[in-house]
């Protein structure tokens, strides 16, 4: 029966009719993305057209933090967006927010309102569509059922969603041709504590903005020709990796449905070892789905730039254009949602788990982070002469110092039960947070620290076939043009690498919101910039701005104190583990240990001082993460036990019985049954070991039911449950390779990888 279902699903995956959608066109030619980009966004340009000028001016002042949004302005915006949305088919609105559970949340409310009129003693009810400023600004979802980490009790249900004015409202398609107005929001408790991912990100952005502007004021000329920087924000580009598999095959895998990863399954003879999938031709079914995703995202203003095959079979990636971090996070969550919805339409299933398949590369969410001014200048752009670009160097050393002092905090920001399976493997950075700068920038910092000239040819000896001429590569083929060469190479093993004009935080997990790790990074950098500001003030004395010599003195000091975090080699090597320990860098391998670093006094004090987390909020986040870790692992263990007891062992028994009957029948006609008996003898001890290890895991889970301390339970899950699961899986995966295919109850990796 199970085999028949598998075969039917495989055949179905190969015979499905492709899904076609009608892309907007003009004169029979599809419109370019630029013409549909943002058509479903209530942007500032749309607001400027629909609002009276004084109202729009007041809103812009509020957006810049100059004043609070008054009731009249809120009512005017609410009326305008209601008219705009209803004209486009909207029937409902929702305050869309990001609770601390790696997902988004929404409650839909109708624009419909009933109005009563009384004439001659009779009530006449009229249906109208209304949307007030107070409805726009906030809503009241039940807060008791969202993670709160002990800040709220079950009976304390009140919570508020509040419109995030920095993120524009937009429309999403609803059922039957209708639409829904989405209002990006923060989520807070009755007492104002953050219950979401976005609130702390916004706070970190404000802390970073304040001190960046102060530092720039100290190093910028005070003349009328140089415009003063009024604001600075972090930018973010999140490369999103994911797997796509056939939806029918997915439904036959209880582990994938319940936990997001395969708890059983052996590698097929061919998977990723030929290195032929990476950047290979995108399967037509997948390309159709991704194209539809890009169309939907373009309409809501989410700028997807790149799509390609990733390393593992059935693995893919999309990457956006860089945006302000707050907006980039919203768009990343929309990207994940669109991939999920559109994949279903194409009879595919998207997997965001960091390690859905054992033995092949897992998925990350590479967070490309930089700093930009309101003039559009990238503060992390080294230019062609980084050694003389003091502004760049000041912000560079601020990041280095932040990662050095709070690397364990950044590690905590990307810790989860799912990401533990990926970190430190062959496709992801290890648990040691270090920074890669590249040969040239490393040489620049060394030269400044040592007070000597920069050796511009430092990278030349390692390049045999090409000659370095400044930043141009001569390829020695006349038909090929000379190409510009980046200041840095790429180090794919580094968890935090400089990649030309930004840092790539590669360790973040594919299914998590980027809000939390980016908020921690913003906070750490802001904290160090405060000290750089103070050092510049002290260094310059009575001068209006810090001179080049003043700036260089501060830069040199921070180069010296942060140099231990810089590493240019192979982060996977055993030698680096030893060297990192000598340098005092934490090697955090498992999430329970990482979570504790949130509360390390130096980290907690920094997060309190910058105003990003209050003490109750930080303890809440710690408890939420620990509790989620425990629940993730225990759900996996119980799922594995169910699969073994109800499906795998019965399949093994059925096959043993078939072999035994075959051997008996052969013996009756005096034919040797040696092969059948040999296979029976090989199977039997493994089945027994599987039963024994499963019983041991079951007993362990029963004992852990009485553990109420989540910190202790997390340690038990890490040290006992996961090894117990690996032991069970080892025997089950051996049996998968021995039991006849027709008896095996689940789609195997071969079918999951190669039927899309």
TrEMBL record:
Span of domain GS beta-grasp: 91-192
Gene3D superfamilies: 1.20.120.1560, Glutamine synthetase/guanido kinase, catalytic domain (3.30.590.10)
Domain (GS catalytic) ranges: 197-648
Keyword presence, Cytoplasm: no
PROSITE patterns cross-referenced by the UniProt entry: GS_BETA_GRASP, GS_CATALYTIC
Sorted UniProt keywords: Kinase, Transferase
Superkingdom field: Eukaryota
A GO biological-process term: glutamine biosynthetic process
A molecular function GO annotation: kinase activity
Similarity remark: Belongs to the glutamine synthetase family.
PANTHER family for the chain: GLUTAMINE SYNTHETASE, TYPE-3 GLUTAMINE SYNTHETASE
The protein, known as: Glutamine synthetase/guanido kinase
Protein species of origin: Hesseltinella vesiculosa
């Amino acid at each position: 029966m199970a085999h028949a279902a598998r075969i039917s699903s495989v055949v179905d995956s190969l015979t499905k009719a492709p899904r076609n959608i009608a892309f907007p066109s003009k004169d029979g030619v599809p419109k370019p993305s630029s013409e549909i980009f943002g058509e479903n966004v209530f942007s500032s340009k749309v607001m400027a057209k629909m609002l009276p000028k004084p109202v729009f001016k007041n809103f812009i002042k509020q957006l810049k933090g100059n004043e609070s949004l008054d009731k009249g302005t809120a009512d005017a915006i609410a009326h305008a967006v209601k008219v705009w949305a209803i004209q486009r088919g909207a029937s409902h609105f929702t305050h869309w927010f990001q609770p601390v559970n790696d997902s988004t949340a929404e409650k839909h409310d109708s624009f419909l309102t009933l109005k009563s009129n009384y004439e001659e003693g009779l009530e006449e009810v009229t249906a109208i569509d209304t949307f007030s400023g107070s409805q726009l600004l906030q809503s009241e979802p039940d807060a008791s059922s969202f993670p709160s980490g002990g800040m709220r009790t079950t009976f304390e249900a009140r919570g508020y969603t509040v419109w995030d004015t920095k993120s524009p409202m937009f429309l999403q398609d609803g059922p039957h041709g209708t639409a829904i107005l989405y209002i990006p929001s923060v989520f807070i408790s009755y007492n104002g504590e953050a219950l979401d991912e976005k609130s702390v990100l916004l706070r970190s952005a404000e802390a970073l903005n304040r001190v960046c502007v102060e530092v720039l004021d100290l190093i910028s000329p005070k003349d009328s020709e140089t415009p003063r920087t009024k604001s600075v924000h972090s930018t973010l580009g999140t490369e999103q990796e994911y797997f796509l598999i056939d939806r029918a095959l997915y439904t036959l895998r209880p582990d994938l449905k319940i936990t997001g990863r395969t708890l059983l399954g052996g590698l097929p003879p061919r998977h990723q070892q030929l290195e032929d999938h990476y950047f290979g031709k995108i399967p037509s079914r997948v390309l159709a789905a991704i194209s539809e995703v890009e169309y939907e995202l373009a309409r809501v203003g989410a700028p997807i730039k790149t799509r390609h095959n990733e390393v593992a079979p059935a693995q893919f990636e999309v990457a956006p254009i860089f945006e302000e971090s707050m907006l980039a996070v919203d768009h990343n969550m929309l990207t994940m949602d669109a991939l999920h919805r559109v994949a279903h339409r194409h009879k595919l299933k998207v997997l965001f788990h960091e390690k859905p398949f054992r033995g092949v590369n897992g998925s990350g969410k590479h967070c490309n982070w930089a700093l930009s001014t309101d003039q559009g200048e990238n503060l992390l752009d080294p230019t062609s002469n980084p050694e003389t670009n003091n502004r760049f160097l000041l912000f560079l050393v601020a990041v280095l110092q932040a990662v050095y002092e709070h690397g364990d905090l950044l590690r905590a920001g990307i810790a989860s039960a799912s990401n533990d399976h990926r970190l430190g493997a062959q496709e992801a950075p290890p648990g040691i947070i270090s920074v890669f700068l590249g040969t040239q920038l490393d040489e620049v910092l060394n030269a400044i620290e040592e007070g000597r000239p920069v050796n511009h040819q430092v990278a030349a000896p390692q390049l045999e076939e090409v000659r370095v001429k400044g930043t141009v590569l001569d390829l020695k083929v006349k038909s090929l043009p000379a190409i510009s060469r980046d200041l840095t190479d790429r180090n794919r093993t580094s968890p935090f690498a400089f990649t030309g004009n930004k840092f790539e935080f590669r360790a973040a997990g594919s299914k998590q919101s980027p809000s939390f790790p980016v908020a921690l990074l913003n906070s750490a950098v802001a904290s160090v910039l405060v000290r750089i500001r103070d050092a510049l003030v002290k260094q310059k004395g009575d001068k209006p701005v810090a001179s080049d010599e003043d700036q260089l003195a501060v830069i040199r000091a921070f180069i010296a104190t942060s140099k231990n975090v810089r590493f240019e080699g192979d982060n996977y090597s055993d030698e680096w583990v030893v060297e990192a320990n000598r340098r005092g860098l934490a090697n955090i391998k498992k999430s329970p240990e990482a979570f504790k670093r949130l509360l390390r006094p130096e980290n907690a004090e920094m997060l309190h001082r910058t105003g990003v987390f209050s003490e109750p909020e930080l303890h809440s986040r710690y408890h939420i993460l620990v509790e989620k870790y425990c629940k993730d692992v225990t759900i996996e263990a119980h799922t594995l036990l169910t699969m073994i007891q109800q499906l795998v062992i019965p399949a093994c028994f059925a096959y043993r019985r078939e072999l035994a009957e075959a051997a008996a029948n052969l013996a009756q006609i005096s034919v040797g049954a040696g092969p059948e008996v040999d296979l029976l003898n090989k199977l039997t001890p493994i089945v027994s070991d599987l039963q024994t290890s499963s019983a041991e895991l079951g007993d362990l889970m029963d004992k852990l039911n009485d553990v109420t301390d989540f910190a202790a339970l997390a340690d038990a899950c890490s040290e006992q449950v996961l090894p117990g699961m690996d032991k069970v899986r080892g025997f089950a995966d051996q049996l998968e390779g021995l039991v006849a295919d027709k008896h095996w109850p689940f789609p195997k990796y071969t079918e999951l990888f190669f039927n899309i």
